[in-house]
Amino acid sequence: MIVVAGESLIDLVPLRTDGDASLPPLLPRPGGGPYNTAVALGRLGSPVAFCSRVSSDGFGEALLDGLRTAGVRTSLVQRGPEPTSLAVAEVGPDGSAGYRFYVTGTADRLFALPAELPGGVRALALGTCSLVLEPGASAYEALLRRESGRGVLTLLDPNIRPGLIPDAGAHRARFRGWLPSVSLLKLSEEDAAWLGGTPDRWLAEGPAAVVVTHGDRGLTVCTRTGVEAAAPAVDVAVADTIGAGDTVNAALLHDLDRRGALSRRGLLALDAAGWTEVLAFAARAAAVTCSRAGAEPPYAAELE
């Protein structure tokens, strides 16, 4: 089973209308990088559980319904009376998305380290706001270190949101401190530029493989064994890019799992041809997400 740990929230997505574009109506959609990753894994057919703290308000109930509908197990979800986090999306003419977050006093910030994960967990994925917002960030970091120490494959998607990071230098240092506990680092080229490193440097600090997404120029991977591979993006009419990177996370884990490579050893054993196929699958999955508004990752049948 794959466990995805991190925040869930409500994306408020602007609707495109013929009216006054300066104040478009907002559509509430389930979101949050880890939440989207879990839903995408469930839709692809992977056994997956979500590990987080979710509000007991109406938005929280809707988030849990979305997980269950996608086949995601929710036994690791903690509950609390605090409100659900909100993210107001700002979508550019090319479909790229920026966000303004409303996270003061919200439920997911109070996540506590679970005593243990269920037996049979082979991979743990983390990232985005959950690794920034305290006190939950320290609990997620402890989960990362503990499960890595048990031999669980770990995927980290830093998914940088600069507006949430009060001290950039401290966060960059903290990121480097996570790398010895990371098996698969996946990040966008924008994340890489903000963090100020290179795949070679990050590989030297711990991960077995580093996947970088390059928007409409596709994806690349480098591994500790010297393997390099790339896959082009799939041409598609872009509605927006919300959830595209999260879909890549899910597609990578799903395809690695069905190849028997969902372990650190498996990442290192995969050759260039195998990695090219994994990246191509992730590119196809992300293209489907980009073709529809909001974070709506594909079902397995859509990628056959």
Features:
single chain; alpha/beta; 4-stranded mixed beta sheet; 34% helix
Task: Describe the 3D structure.
This protein has 304 residues and is of the alpha/beta class. It has helices at 33-44, 58-69, 136-149, 168-178, 189-195, 199-204, 244-258, 264-269, 272-290, and strands at residues 2-5, 9-14, 26-31, 48-55, 77-80, 86-91, 97-102, 123-127, 153-157, 184-188, 209-213, 219-223, 228-231. The longest helix has 19 residues, at 272-290. The protein is globular. The model has no long low-confidence stretch (mean pLDDT 93).
**Main beta sheet:** 9 strands, mixed
Instruction: Specify the structural class.
Output: alpha/beta
SSE order? EEEHEHEEEEHEHEHHEEEHHH
Total DSSP E strands: 13
In round numbers, the mean pLDDT is 93
Count of helical regions:
9
Percentage of residues in strands: 15-25%
Distance between the termini: 22 Å
Would you identify the regions where 5 or more consecutive residues have pLDDT less than 50? none
The gross shape turns out to be globular
Radius of gyration: 18 Å
Helix content: 25-40%
Strand order of the largest sheet: 5-4-1-8-9-10-11-12-13
